[in-house]
Amino acid sequence: MKNILKSAVALLSVLVAFTSCNNTSNSNAGALSSSAAEKVYVNPGEHDEFYAFISGGFSGQLSVYGLPSGRLFKVIPVFSQDAEKAYGYNEETKPMLNTSHGFVPWDDSHHPDISQTNGVIDGRWVFINGNNTPRIAKIDLSTFETTEIIEVPNSAGNHSSSFVTENTEYVVAGTRFSIPIPQKDMPIKDYKGNFKGALSFISVDPEHGHMDIKFQLIMPGFDYDLSHPGRGKSHGWFFFSTYNTEEASTLMEVNASQNDKDFIAAVNWKKIEEYVNNGGGTMMPANYAHNVYDESTHSATSTMIKEVLTVNPLDVPGAVFLMPTPKSPHGCDVDPTGEYIVGSGKLSANLTVHSFTKMLAAIENESFAGDAYGIPIIDFEASLAGVVEQPGLGPLHTEFDGKGNAYTTFFISSEVVKWKLGTWEVVDRQPCYYSVGHLMIPGGNSQKPFGKYVVAMNKITKDRYLPTGPEVTQSAQLYDISGDKMELLLDFPTVGEPHYAAGCPADLIKPRSKKLFKLEENNHPYATKTEADTKVVREGKDVHIYMTTIRSHFAPDNIEGIKVGDKVYFHITNLEQDYDVPHGVSIIGANTSELLIMPGQTETFVWEPKQVGVWPFYCTDFCSALHQEMQGYVRVSAANSSTPLRWSLGEDIE
Ligand code: RUQ
Ligand code: CUA
């Protein structure tokens, strides 16, 4: 035990030493050529060539940037409440954040992935995982809004997620932490052999994108870290990196770093799908939320689902295999041809690359080196395609340019290293500032990457920006990879931790981007489609205000007869039918956020007035030259008063 501790401390101090030495050597900062500036400069009024969807990490959101400029366009609220957009605050979107643990207004979002058709990104949806309270979200890229969130049962730390198969048949979510399945009260020390890890295959309806958990593969109690789908020749398979194959449950930095090799699990999901379609698997009681936002009612609903189909890997022989991979592999990346599976052993000196073809041959020849809980372990040499020797320290993630090159990030030596698939030779390296995690090449997770730029997403910024107190901005860096040598072009700050990103050519999304919601298609139960239909309705202590907005007034704008103790619902429909004319609204003392209502949309907030008086409300979004006139009053009387309920616009309430 003492020895283990000692070696852990030694290892840690090496890691710390590397990190800090890198962070103080700011060697080539400011050494950019003027051509670098030209390469990222987008003329005022012109558009960027690529969209980059960068996750916010612990902000729980997804932000949209342009490349090469690094300009921020939008923060899309996904797992966290956003007062600016009323997401998770208005009545319509609160159900999006419902879970089996109740309303959960935050999460840690890591890996966005864009939907694909025939192995090529199609720009329809982005999927992203919530780690902490396991969820997968879908964002519609015609509205840039979160339209669906499904909770993942039997999971904890939904980290090896959310990656899509070649035709978006599935978005896959693997658990980082193994847990008792089903959950129960038991001693932690009995982890080994008893805790399990669920790998969830969530089907995606090809038309509407509706998500549904098709099955969960219940695997041994390892930690499932990252994953990627097979593509091309390996379509039908999915690969998951694992660590803690030791199945330790305490002092993991030491105890989960004992084994010389952990595994990349190879899952033939086509085979399991067939098994399940033929009635295989065990239906298990569960309780998880499925939240869907309906664009026509502009409202979300949350449904609790009570069972989930589980599959024991031993029941589907030939479907699951383990490929030994040195030293706690983190990234598990598949090249555009589908032949190579790159395992980034965090504590390994080398990068291990497996061959899909050799893996199949090894399975055929039964070149196995034992098993883990009955799952065959493929002989290490049998699936090995090659090794990139000593490329750097602390490899994490790899992306591909589609021209036979791979780019791997190294956290400890703080660099991106370019190497060649097949010959495994390192051909270039560029420093990152600092401690890079993921990197992203637009389309890099598909058969067709757009190998012009790579974005490096860093964990530490230190001296790169003006100081802003103890917390320095988070940041990403853009490199030109169109030539033989990578060239650093740009640093740009990000919202939240730029954990990972997905990118695609702007032309894929731009033409389909929605400009407004058609008023005649608004099916919100409290929609008001003309000013003539506006009204105020009392139902006991609940008061429903059917209000409209159009430049530059609210209808009605004077309301009387509200009483202390009422619960007042402002249902506001924006009658505008022009691009880019939202109106906002809030009222003094409201315990919720503003509303920001898009043209043709209806949204609702609740106000519980606590004081007698005449209280103003106003438009919060500068919408016209007379925006400042866009205001109104609500008269609040005592609970026992007899002030009649009346409302008006353009005339006095008599
Ligand atoms: S993991 S920095 Cu959350 Cu994406 Cu490798
Ligand atoms: Cu409407 Cu400002």
From TrEMBL:
Primary subcellular site in the record, as a coarse category: other
* Location(s) in or outside the cell: Cell envelope
Q: Where is the signal peptide?
A: 1-22
Q: Which UniProt keywords apply?
A: Copper, Metal-binding, Oxidoreductase, Signal
One Gene Ontology cellular component: cell envelope
**What EC class does the entry list?**
oxidoreductase
Q: What is its EC number?
A: 1.7.2.4
The protein's matches in SUPFAM superfamilies, at most eight in alphabetical order, are given as: Cupredoxins, Nitrous oxide reductase, N-terminal domain
Q: Which GO terms describe its molecular function?
A: copper ion binding; nitrous-oxide reductase activity
KW Signal (keyword) present: yes
Which PANTHER family does the protein's record reference?
CYTOCHROME C OXIDASE SUBUNIT II, NITROUS-OXIDE REDUCTASE
The name on file for this protein is Sec-dependent nitrous-oxide reductase
Taxonomic lineage of this organism? Bacteria, Pseudomonadati, Bacteroidota, Flavobacteriia, Flavobacteriales
